[in-house]
């Protein structure tokens, strides 16, 4: 984001104390969501983590309902195949363990609370576009995470670094390969979020949600191919049902959003 702002590829947002205070909550939940997702990735197959993360709409509906939002019956029905599909995938997952499942579920809670908190806290900062908002949430998240990372595992950094270098060399690579993959991972992750926010400005929420569902399918299939994770027929069926439920949820919530928009205009 600093590069984008410095080169004037992205307009700099006007920063104020109320704006930064409003971001403290969303940034905290953003941090929790990412840490728990990384924990899940480290313990189970990447495809399984993404299947469980496809249940995020379930948490979204439940938390939003507690806060007073009302959803039509179609939305509630759409979460049933998500729950059933995720449950079936979990039961038949070869790499299943409780830590991986818990990490993915906590990640869902973190991101849902981030989204709800952002919407409720930042209504008065509509002049800030999505990319700048995401950029500042990430910057504050880094400020949260850095001291916590030093406290929790700072003593393990040197040893972990040497083990990572040794593992890279054992596979025929060099220390530069480690730096390359870590950097590439960070760049691609930022570009993914940047393109998502930019796409949302140009297309309808329904089109975006359909694309987001297809992204989940591509990620799951790609990780199975790349990492050659064993997938049983019931596991594949559960994953497909969960993703299909996510698609139904996207359509149902999009219709609700259009209805609310129409009521506001009238």
Automatic annotation (TrEMBL):
Residues 1-250 form the Sugar phosphate transporter domain. GO terms for cellular component: membrane. InterPro entries: Sugar_P_trans_dom, TPT_transporter. Its main location: membrane. Keywords: Membrane, Transmembrane, Transmembrane helix. The chain crosses the membrane at residues 71-91, 98-117, 133-152, 173-192. It comes from the Eukaryota. It is found in: Membrane. It is a multi-pass membrane protein. This is Sugar phosphate transporter domain-containing protein.
